[in-house]
């Protein structure tokens, strides 16, 4: 289903189409526990150890059989037979079920017997064997996303490696004018950045990016690169070549190798993106424009990965008021970079200039807003949700760049779980 410029598939429908068309690939890999944060356990994880391995004293004192202290009181102190001196962390000998703190007993200077003047409750000041966990007990269920606070438990219970869901994403940069990072571009050349950016975002989501060499604008070489990418990965992203220029060959290559499901999406920036299927695997063409490529990556590729169980860091959302009106193209979801400033609990959003090649706009901005397809214009003063692209504390620092006093109005701060849209 190829869409022309006048028949762009809505973003929501595109996301629904690809998530329905491409199920989770089912790939797994074994990774060190220390490198598993953000990954999803594909099977239950069970403890290899029993902890504590024996009964442990939790106070300095004497280990006793609680029954031997029965009836002890200040008026009728009891000499405790067979009491054993222990310190915090020592094993409590077999047959003993309580510890009396050293401050609560005295030792007869003549006989050496320990004297208690109050009874000890069973298991008093004893951490029992297996109290925390036993060998074979469940630590994490299948489908659990490993968090930072899980690492201590996993390593303590003897887990060095964990099997997690995996996805390999092939990244193919194209363009005869594109040169690799580290190369000084000549006239008409640009340094490849889209694949570099995508690699970082995909890694944060828990996927494994596989970067391929730059492919010049040659239809046969592009076709061979796609064949290799599909054979070796679960998803392929092709940077540039998705438009309708004389050197844009991605769509024709996909038609030869498989099929084009969507060519043209109602998203701005990013409308020239395309989605294809080759050997039942998704191939997504990113526009060459960096801002457009990022929008497609964030709003289309990451939702597909999320449907497979791969999600990046949670996104913070602030409610802010626009400082100037924004017109939007009808029937097109638009994403606009903004700089949010703050005064007390109040936020305002200053839209960045829109246009091609606006790499510095992403550096200056600290968030972006979504103008839904049904909305043609936002007015100055309208309250909008801004998804932050930088830490919230950076908002205060942005005041030095934009000394604009916000109007008084209420604001809220919420958190969106996982990636947006």
From TrEMBL:
Gene3D superfamilies: MoaB/Mog-like domain (3.40.980.10), MoeA, C-terminal, domain IV (2.40.340.10), Molybdopterin biosynthesis moea protein, domain 2 (3.90.105.10), Molybdopterin biosynthesis moea protein, domain 3 (2.170.190.11)
Key words, A-Z: Molybdenum cofactor biosynthesis
Protein name: Molybdopterin molybdenumtransferase MoeA
Domain of life: Archaea
InterPro entries reported in the protein's UniProt record: MoaB/Mog-like_dom_sf, MoaB/Mog_dom, MoeA-like, MoeA_C_domain_IV, MoeA_C_domain_IV_sf, MoeA_linker/N, MoeA_linker/N_sf
SUPFAM superfamilies attached to this UniProt entry: MoeA C-terminal domain-like, MoeA N-terminal region -like, Molybdenum cofactor biosynthesis proteins
Species the sequence originates in: Methanoculleus frigidifontis
Pathway connected to this protein: Cofactor biosynthesis; molybdopterin biosynthesis
Residue ranges of domain MoaB/Mog in the record: 170-307
One Pfam entry name: MoeA_C
């Amino acid at each position: 289903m190829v869409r022309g410029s006048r028949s762009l598939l809505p973003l929501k429908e595109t996301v629904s189409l690809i998530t329905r068309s491409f199920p989770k690939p089912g790939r797994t890999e074994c990774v060190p526990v220390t490198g598993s944060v953000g990954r999803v356990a594909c099977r239950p994880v069970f403890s290899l150890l029993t902890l504590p391995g024996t009964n442990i004293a939790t106070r300095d004192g004497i280990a006793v059989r609680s029954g031997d202290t029965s009836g002890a009181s200040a008026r009728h102190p009891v000499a405790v037979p067979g009491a054993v001196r222990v310190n915090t962390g020592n094993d409590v000998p077999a047959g003993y079920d309580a510890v009396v703190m050293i401050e609560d007993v005295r030792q007869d200077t003549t006989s050496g017997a320990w004297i208690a003047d109050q009874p000890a409750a069973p298991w008093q000041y004893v951490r029992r064997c297996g109290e925390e966990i036993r060998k074979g007990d469940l630590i994490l269920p299948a489908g659990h996303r490993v968090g930072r606070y899980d690492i201590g438990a996993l390593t303590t219970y003897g887990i060095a490696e964990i099997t997690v869901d995996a996805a390999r994403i092939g990244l193919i940069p194209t363009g005869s004018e594109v040169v690799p990072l580290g190369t000084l571009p000549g006239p008409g050349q640009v340094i490849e950045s889209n694949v570099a950016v995508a690699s970082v975002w995909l890694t944060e989501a828990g996927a494994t990016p596989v970067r391929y060499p730059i492919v010049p604008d040659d239809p046969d070489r592009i076709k061979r690169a796609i064949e290799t990418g599909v054979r070796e990965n679960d998803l392929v992203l092709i940077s540039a070549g998705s438009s309708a220029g004389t050197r844009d060959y991605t769509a024709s290559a996909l038609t030869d190798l498989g099929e084009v499901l969507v060519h043209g999406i109602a998203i701005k920036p990013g409308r020239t993106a395309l989605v294809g299927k080759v050997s039942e695997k998704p191939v997504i063409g990113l526009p060459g424009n960096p801002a457009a490529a990022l929008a497609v990556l964030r709003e289309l590729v990451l939702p597909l990965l999320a449907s497979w169980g791969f999600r990046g860091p949670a996104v913070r959302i602030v409610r802010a008021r626009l400082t100037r009106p924004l017109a939007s193209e009808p029937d097109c979801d638009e994403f606009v970079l903004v700089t949010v400033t703050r005064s007390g609990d109040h936020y305002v959003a200053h839209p960045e200039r829109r246009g091609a090649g606006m790499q510095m706009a992403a550096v200056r901005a600290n968030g972006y807003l979504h103008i839904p397809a049904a909305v043609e214009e936002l007015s100055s003063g309208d309250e909008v949700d801004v998804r932050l692209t930088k830490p919230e504390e950076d908002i205060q620092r942005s005041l030095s760049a934009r000394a604009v006093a916000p109007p008084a109005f209420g604001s809220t701060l919420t958190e969106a779980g996982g990636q947006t849209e």
